[in-house]
Structure formats: structure tokens, C-alpha cells
TrEMBL record:
Cofactor: Mg(2+)
Protein name: Shikimate kinase
Pathway assigned to this chain's UniProt record: Metabolic intermediate biosynthesis; chorismate biosynthesis; chorismate from D-erythrose 4-phosphate and phosphoenolpyruvate: step 5/7
Catalyzed reaction equations: shikimate + ATP = 3-phosphoshikimate + ADP + H(+)
Subcellular location: Cytoplasm
Quaternary structure (record): Monomer.
Function as written in the Swiss-Prot or TrEMBL entry: Catalyzes the specific phosphorylation of the 3-hydroxyl group of shikimic acid using ATP as a cosubstrate.
Highest taxon of source: Bacteria
A Pfam family the protein falls into: SKI
Biological process per Gene Ontology, one example term: chorismate biosynthetic process
Amino acid sequence: MDNIVLIGFMGTGKSTVGQHLSERLELEFVDSDEVIEERAGREISSIFAEYGEEYFRDLETEVITDLSRQQRLVISTGGGVVLRQENIEQLRKKGTIILLTAEPEVILDRVKDSDRPLLEVPEPLEKIKEMLADRREYYDITEYKIDTSQMSVAEVVAEIEKIISNEGG
């Protein structure tokens, strides 16, 4: 079975859905951000603070390339993974890419108590809207899109299972 790759903005449910999906399908779950933190020996917020976003994106590309060589994974990616075309090309080689989306207000509610370096601004809702607008064309790379705003995790998992069964995976 090919990999199942979850892309989307922060707070759309990639990690939570990915964990449940991997259990349901008996596949290994991998969160690319966690792999980056393990390899770097520090949290992403620290990587951003000390080395900047470009350095983080380089680490992310290395991890995506490595994960893309494997099979039978459910991969939850970081929200900005789509900013580099090479990441998407790698993920497509052995994976079905599914975009998870959510309304900006839902995203803010989901991430407000977490450490998100890109949202450490006076108006985080406006920043979310701005970033979503900036990334729209990058996220629009797959025919598979699920708006998680009003769905339970189980409902999202069921939708993904339908997609995968139609793909022949």
C-alpha cells in the first residue's frame, strides 16, 4: 500500500486524524514535524528562533525525502511543507495526498494554546487568514480535500477510507 499523506494548514487535524487513521488501517503513523525535532534535537519553535524559517524548511525537505522512500505510512506533514514543490513531488511518488482544511476561526480555536512561532503576532486570526490566502495555490495540488471544521475525527477518517478504497489502495 502506498503512503497516505495529510497536508494542510496548522490546526486542520493532520496529526490527530493521522494517528486515528493509522490505527484503523494498521499502518505506521509519522508526523514529519516530530521527526524534524528528533533529528535536530530541539523543538521547531527553537529551530525557527535560532536559525530561521529557511533552515527549518531545509530540514523539512530532508525528512520528507526520507519518508517518501518508505511505504505503508500515514504521514502528517507540517503546514508549510507545500511551499517547496520538491516536497510535493517526493510525497506523490509513493503516496496519496489529501488536503485537510478548516475555517480560520476553527484553526485559531484549535491552536490558540499551542506554541506556533508563525502565530506569535498581535492579531493571530488575521495572520491565519493572510497565510491561508498566501498558501491557497500551494494547497490546491490535490483533488482530495476534506473540510474538518464541523467533522469529528471518526468522520474524517471514514472520508479518507473512502478515498483510499476508490484509489485502489
